[in-house]
Automatic annotation (TrEMBL):
Belongs to the complex I 49 kDa subunit family. This is NADH-quinone oxidoreductase subunit D domain-containing protein. Pfam families: Complex1_49kDa. Residues 125-199 form the NADH-quinone oxidoreductase subunit D domain. It comes from Flemingia macrophylla. The keyword Translocase applies. Keywords: NAD, Thylakoid, Translocase, Transport.
Amino acid sequence: MNISTTRNDIMIINMGPHHPSMHGVLRLIVTLDGEDVIACEPILGYLHRGMEKIAENRTIIQYLPYVTHWDYLATMFTKAITVNGPEQLGNIQVPERASYIRVIMLELSRIASHLLWLGPFMSNIGAQTPFFYIFRERELYDLFEAATGMRMMHNFFRIGGLAIDLPYGWVDKCYDFWDYFLIKLVEYQKVISRNPIFLEWV
């Protein structure tokens, strides 16, 4: 007859990150005595770079290039919230054209962020083909590069406006991207959201 016994040894376990593709997220090294946590060592990951500490020694204008590192998939959003605060506090009016360009850039940034979430998500659940479909849409990053000079970490928004106006021909390229991308959205729906295997996995 086997008698089950409980162990009283100290156990050290890792909580997160749950998958290698989840870089930069919080990891906890937890020491357990039975069910009691007796020690915990947090590992913050690579995306946490002490931005608040950096901000303590800089003016808001000096700090603007740093905020794009908060979320490297949607850098326009971090820049927008950083410039919106001083603009509202100082009652600074942003020119109408700059406001429209900001909205367009924020929407493009949102699409880029969603695409770069969807591709690795599909790969993580075992669907490799949609992962490669997502990375076809590089024209979106060409638009960012044409407007800001960088494909990622765009330092484009400024307090009261933008760093520079859009280059000649950028609007036409943006229209071309929309025409192309709307067709691809239908394809994504067929391959992903209407796929019975995907719906069963998720």
